[in-house]
Amino acid sequence: MEFKKIPFEDNHLTELTPEQIEAAKAKYKAVFEITVEDKKCWLHKPDRNVLDLANSASSKKSSKFNETILRNCWLAGDKDIVEEDDYFYGASTQLDELITFKNAELKKY
Description:
Blueprint: H1 18-28, E1 31-36, E2 39-44, H2 48-58, H3 63-73, E3 74-77, H4 80-83, H5 85-92
């Protein structure tokens, strides 16, 4: 099964099946579920393009970084998480976990 991502505005999926999660993991390497009280959403790990877009958006308004990550990594869920402030800020506290990097070492000679 191949996972077909739907843009946030057109996405009406409220949850993902285990099969959809596995297909999304195969495509995006990682899938995350965020729960904010009674609401859930599923996101994939952001790539460089999404991070660049989020950084650019945040130059005008700091909350746009998190909103850009949510909208562009959205796979399914309750859109109140993006559209209602209490849920949005709750979900925002977890977004750092999506943005992980390999450890690097610098040596000077």
